[in-house]
Structure formats: C-alpha cells, structure tokens
Amino acid sequence: MRFPVPGFLLSALAASLLLAGCAGSPLRSYDQEMRGAVSLVRSGQVDDALSQLERNNKPLFASDAPRDKEGQAKESTVLDSVNGRDILYYFEKGELLCLKKEYEGSRDSWLVADEIVRTWEDEYRANPTKVLGEIGSFLVSDRVRRYDGQDYEKVFLSAKLTLDHILLGNFDLARVEMKKTYEREKLIESFREKEYDKLQEEQEKQGVKADTKDLAARGYPMDELDSPEVRQLKNGFQNAFAHYLAGYFFEVTGEYSLAEPGYRNALALQPNSKLIKEKVGKVGRNKPGPNETDVLFVVESGFAPAWKSVTIPLPIPVNRKWVATPLSFPVIKSEGKSYMPASLKANGKELTVETLVNVDAMARRQLKDQLPGIIGRTVVRAVAKSALQYQAQKHGGAVAGIIAGIASVATEQADERAWRTLPERLAVARAILPRGTVPIEFQTGSGVYKTEITVGNRVTVIPIRLTNGAVYVGQPRVEAWADAFTDEPPRPAKSRGRAPRKSK
After folding, report:
1. Judging by DSSP bridges, how do beta strands 321-333 and 448-455 pair with one another?
2. Element (H or E) spanning 324, and its range?
3. CB-based contact 378:239 (threshold 8 Å)
4. Which of 38, 242, 320, 438 is deepest in the core (most CB within 10 A)?
C-alpha cells in the first residue's frame, strides 16, 4: 500500500531550495561567494569588490521597506525578514568603505551590524534560558540559525567602530564604544560559560559523548587547532588591540585614570608585549611638546581565515545498527601568512611595529573551544534525521525517503560564515611627531611604500592595510578637529600614490 508524500517533507525541500538564493541565506557557500571580493581588495580594486558585494546580496523577493520607530523607511535586515540582508553584508561593506576612507559610510554600515549584535545581547540579557535553549536544540543545524557574528567578530566590530569615530573626530561616541567593548567581552564570556553547561546537560540526556579524539582519529585536523599561538590565547574573542586603543585614547586626552586599565587589560591578553609594558604604570610620563602629537599607527595585514566544511564519517545508530555516516564539521583555512613589516619609518624615526592581534589564531581558538558542542549537536541531529528519513520512506515510499534525504543534506553542511575582509593580523607602532605633513615609509613585501600623512592635534590615528598586493593608508578627517579642539588643524597631506616602490 502506498502513502502520499508527507506535506512537511515537500515544504522542507521547497524551503531549502528557495533559501539557497536568499541574500542572507545560510544555504549559500559564503566562502566561495567572497573569494572574488577578497581577490579584488588584494589587488586594490575596492570599488569592484563593493559592486560584487551588492550583486551577491540582492534580495530574492520584492518586499515593502521596513519602518523605524519614527515611521521612516529603513534598510531591510535579517532582523526584519528572511529576505533582509544579514550581518555579514554590513561587516564587509563597512570594511570596504573604510579602505576607501569613506568613514561615514563605513560607520553607518557597522552601526547596522551592531544593531544585530545588540539584538542578540538584549535577547540573552532578557531571557538567557531561551537563547541557551535554542543553542541546545539539536534538530536545528548551526548553518540555518541567524548569524550574529563569531565571538571575535562581535568584539572586533566594537574596535572598528571606535576607530571610525576617532577618525571622524567623534570622540564622545568613541568613549561610548570603548565602554561597550569591555561590556561585550564580559557578556560573551558569561554566555559561553552557560552554553557549555547547557550542552553538557543536553548531551547527557541524549546519550551522546562529544569526543574530539574520535574526530581526530578519523582525519579531522585537530593539530591545526593546537598551535603555540592558539594555546597562548586566553580565549577566542578578547581583543588586545581594543584595550590598547582605549589606553592610547585616554592617555592622549589626559584621562590617565581611564588609560591605565586599558593598558593593563591589553597586557593581560598580550603579556609579552614590550609596547604595552612601556605604558603600564607610566601613563602620561612621555608627553608631546608644543606642536607635537602622540601618533598611533594601526597596521593591518592580510585577510581573516575562511571557515570551510569538511566531511568526516562517524558511526551513527540507524535502525538498531551502527552505520558509518558522513557528517560535516567546520575547519579553519588560512589565506596564507601575510606580510607584516617589522618597522615603520616616520619623519626619519624608525618605529617598531608590534602585532597585538592574530585573527587566524583567534578563529582557531574559538573553534577549538566550541568543537565539543558542535560534535554533540551534529551527531544527535544525524540520529534524529536518519530516523525521520527511515519513517518517511516506510510510510511514504521511496520518493518520500528521497525528499527527506535531500532536505537533510541541503541543511547539514558545516557553517562557513565568517567576516572575510577582516585582517589576518593587526599591529601598532607609536611615536611623538611634529604636527603638519610628515613623510612615512615601510616595507610591503614587494618593495618600499612611501607617502605623507597629516599629523593633527592630540589624537591622531593612522590606519594602514597591506594585502600582499595593494597598500591602503587612511587619514583622520582634519576638518573634524576644528570642532574637537581650539587650535586650527594643519592642511591634509597629498598622497604620493598607492603602488609600492621597489627596494634597490
């Protein structure tokens, strides 16, 4: 006797196929989608990278524009509908606009991303049991959940917004963002502790043991998550640069009591840093003279690693038998070690460039910490879906079984979503320099890059990005200084070009 194909299976298949084309769809391959944009940024074609980002994030369905609290039309995000753009679009767009020195647009894009992160934070504060319950729901693939950003991305977002506010001269907003960075780290720490306890409880209920040794024995590259750089990290989300930036800002603005905690927090994360050690306990001792400024260079290189899906066969109980079942797990794939200059010359001074953040290592540490939970969810989900497919075929025939299988495969790839235009590494250099036009130069890996910067009043941060192909040098908005300070800012310097000069 034949049974009709269950309606929920047809719905699941239809939803899977439709979602694969949505702007914020978790069923698309995000790593593959972003490869072209990363390549364009690497070669200096930011405008083309932006165009590609827009093409990749066109809404699948036409819909009415959502409204804000005042009734004004606003851009549709994933918070408004499944058709809205997700947080990754705003992460990437903010980074690309920042490279173009369009700091207002960059800030606005990151503020939308921050709204999505704050929604997750508010949900956790209001009802932690509900949020943790959703994490513990083994029947929902990690890949089809709303993406709120990796932990390190959430903290990096606050650091990036702080930088944009400083570059635009919005120092009060920068202060707010620095405070929020610290609070965000604390909230993430609390969430992860409770999540671990919740997952342990759920795995015991389901009779599942999440053992990374079993995964490693079947070919998973666990050694890549256990390098010295990964082991020395306190966790996968706290950001030494964010705290150092707070220390710098409060020191140069004369708020020494706030600067000291920033440096101490940074040192706790990077205990071997000579640059940070020079400041702890010595805030305000090395002050700029008349017509001088304490300048911070923020040097970024390369691109954050990709998260990719790898298939590992694990034994799963199916219809009272143990069957080797292919399951998908995330792995970290580096873009290749980027070039970071050991020093930078400014106005003839040789300045040491010291790395404070390694995003590749942070991503690996985060995956290492979360892998036991990922294994537990994946194994239990596979057992449940195998039972569902068996029942579908038993009661609905071969077609129903096939449909259930297709729907299962469509949603069971590991989550590949990650902020791809973030740098691989972030370093800083610092010097007291005369105000006005100052020449700088540094190695790029393919030659010497020379240009000029404008050193302004009290707070001058110069962002530099190397991509192993192009060089981007930012400049604070000098027109904003007139409102922030009483003395007149110098005129902006003219860049001498973007292409590195070959060293002789």
Report:
1. unpaired
2. strand 321-333
3. no
4. 242
Question: Among 166, 178, 176, which residue's Cα sits nearest to residue 481?
Answer: 166
Residues 6+ away with beta carbon under 8 Å from 378:
327, 328, 329
Query: For the sheet containing 343-346, what is the strand order?
Result: 349-352, 343-346, 436-443, 448-455
With beta carbons less than 8 A apart as the criterion, state whether 8 and 393 touch.
no
Main-chain dihedrals φ then ψ at residue 271, nearest 5 degrees: -65, -15
Q: Within its chain, how far is the Cα of 484 from the centroid?
A: 31
Task: Give the pair of three-digit tokens for residue 18.
Answer: 């439709």
Sorted by sequence, the CB contacts under 8 Å of residue 52 that are 6+ apart come out as: 36, 37, 40
Cβ atoms of 359 and 423 closer than 8 Å: yes
Question: Phi and psi (nearest 5°) for 489?
Answer: -75, 155
Q: What is the pLDDT of residues 155-183, one digit of tens each?
A: 999 999 999 999 999 999 999 999 999 99
Q: How many helices (H) and strands (E) does the chain have?
A: 15, 11
Q: Provide the whole-model pTM.
A: 0.85
CB 78 within 8 A of CB 87: yes
In angstroms, the CA 327 to CA 341 distance is 41
Q: Looking at residue 67, what DSSP letter applies?
A: B
Torsion of CA 479, 481, 486, 488, to 10 degrees: -50
Nearest to 306 by CA among 468, 421, 216: 421
Would you say the C-alpha torsion 257, 261, 262, 263 has a positive or negative sign? positive
Contact status, residue 342 vs residue 367, Cβ threshold 8 Å: no
Residues of the chain with pLDDT > 90, as a percent, come to 56
- Grouping H, G, I as helix, E, B as strand and the rest as coil, residue 42 is helix
pLDDT digits (tens, 9 = 90+) for 185-206: 999 999 988 887 877 777 777 6
Residue 285 has pLDDT above 80, yes or no: yes
Q: By the 8 A CB rule, do 225 and 368 touch? A: yes
Closest CA to 87 of 420, 419, 362, 424: 419
Distance CA 485, CA 11 (A): 61
